[in-house]
From TrEMBL:
A double ring-shaped homohexamer of HslV is capped on each side by a ring-shaped HslU homohexamer. The assembly of the HslU/HslV complex is dependent on binding of ATP. It is an enzyme of class 3 (hydrolase). Na(+) binds at residues 159, 162, 165. It comes from the Bacteria. Its EC number is 3.4.25.2. One of its GO terms (biological process) is proteolysis. The active site is at 2. It catalyses: ATP-dependent cleavage of peptide bonds with broad specificity. The gene is hslV. This is ATP-dependent protease subunit HslV.
Length: 174
């Protein structure tokens, strides 16, 4: 399990993700995995939660959709979600992705959902609810922080609550 949190705040979009990889519910296999990546010539940032192999498969499919639709993030996301629902191979994938570029911030799920957040925060993974609540609170109360700092602190807070989230945090922003 893991936690990924993306935040749009003061004209910035940033993402943070922890590095914990677990096997089952008892064993930490790795503490420093990179679940935040840049794709499409560094124009798009993604963060994923779920099975690593499944996430890499989705990343590849998503990047192909971005190429097909000339970098149109929303169109690529909708097309990926449609394929994910229809294709028998993709239907078996267990992962979720947060994706963003300079203007759009989206969640893509295997249920065919492409969600643009109301409150400019999206979080996924085992600690996602904790991270999202923390980030929304910081934004609502005018935290004197950058988007990157809010995302990182949200993961840090989640790691204090969720045993599947650690403090080895990777951040990125465009």
């Amino acid at each position: 399990m893991t936690t990924i949190c993306a935040v749009r705040y003061q004209d910035q979009i940033a993402i943070a993700g922890d590095g914990q990889v677990t096997a089952g519910e008892k064993t930490i296999m790795k503490a420093t995995a990179h679940k935040v990546r840049r794709i499409f010539d560094d124009q798009v940032v993604i963060g994923f939660a779920g099975g690593v192999a499944d996430a890499f498969t989705l990343e590849d499919w998503f990047e192909k959709k971005l190429q097909k639709y000339s970098g149109n993030l929303k169109r690529a996301a909708v097309e990926l979600a449609q394929d994910w629902r229809k294709d028998p191979t993709l239907q078996k994938l267990e992962a979720m992705m947060i994706v963003f570029d300079q203007k759009d911030l989206l969640l893509i799920s295997g249920n065919g959902e492409v969600i643009e957040p109301d409150e400019d925060v999206i979080a996924i993974g085992s600690g996602g609810n904790f991270a999202q609540a923390a980030a929304v609170a910081m934004i609502r109360h005018g935290a004197n922080l950058t988007a990157s700092q809010i995302a990182q602190e949200a993961i840090n807070i989640a790691s204090d609550i969720d045993i599947f989230t650690n403090k080895s945090i990777i951040t990125d922003q465009l």
